[in-house]
Amino acid sequence: MILGQVSYIDCFVFLCFLVPQLLLQAGVWSTLLCGIRALPHIIILIPFHFFKERYFTRRRKQSPFVRQASPFQDFVIRCVRYAFACIPARIGRVFFSKPVALPFMMFRMLRHGFLRCPIYWREIQRDGFKGIWIVPDELVKPDIIVFYCHGGGFSMGSSYFYLEFLIVWVSLLRDQGYRNPGLLALEYTLVPDRSYPFQVDEAMAGYAHALSIVGDASRVCVAGDSAGATLVLSILLRLAESSEKANAPLPGFAVLISPWTTLVSVKNRNTASDYLNADSLHLYARQYAASASLDDPLVSPGRCRDQARWRSAAPSSGLLFLYGSEEVFAPETEDLVSLMKKAGVETIVRKEDGSIHAWPVATLFLSDTKAERQKGLQSIVQVMRRRMV
User: Fold this and answer.
1) Are 129 and 210 in contact (CB under 8 A)?
2) Which candidate, 6, 66, 220, 389, has a CA 20 to 30 Å from the CA of 294?
């Protein structure tokens, strides 16, 4: 199932689903206050800077992302940049919540002629975790499983917001020749409802369940974007510990999309292109860590500089890193990639020049052509097919 680009109609419908949920979940006063603060940015400042840079600035002085983005992509990312920097997480989390994201995806399917999802999915809840299970044939044992952790700074996001992206991933895996690929998306508990190590414990329980379904760790790919990729790195380090290794072996492969490797770092700096905001990120990091140390590698995996430890934590078929050259996390991602390579870990890198945070996710929704929308996921599934035969 490959749907078309998100349109202005989709944006309007998304707002129709969002506003009632903001009133219900965040409250009338908080929603009204947030809207009043956002109004001058939405109707004056964002359009002003959009037109100024896009149409009245020489190309060489434009940000790398603006040079290659369509007007629609440019404007949407500017709005997301404002939201990430200025809207509190307790309100922002509503944007990605199930009551907003799920009906929005259903609307998009209807708009593209799908009365029901062409690939089976259902909610799943087991001891220690909950999530979404996606598989073409529920009655047939999967020949490969992706265990996915979503992003959102630990404070926002949900598997339902990513559902379209994940269903396309499964569809493309079938196109690559897998008979019945499955995907288990973790719906972990957000901050401030719980903090570290609760989310890592949930990820460990979810991984153990994925392993129990397929029965062979070499057939499991652990994956995630942003904060979800942090959880993936954390569970790899935990699995490498002797006590954990006795209970669950390491997976066959890992896909890390724009990983938040080091939660608080002077290298996490704002860029002219990216929509992430370093100050907001560092706030979310401290809320996630709570009483734990931000120097603990299980909290902030980029703090692990021990090559031997990364060798022991590496999946049997290696790791794939995907990130944008212009994103806030690029310097720390490159540091970890360099360390992995020095440690002799099989590491594959897909750096997208001029692009932003979590570009494989963003392009699926915002790019103009089918080829561009699938570019990131096609790169992922092709590497998976080569590495996980």
Assistant:
1) no
2) 220
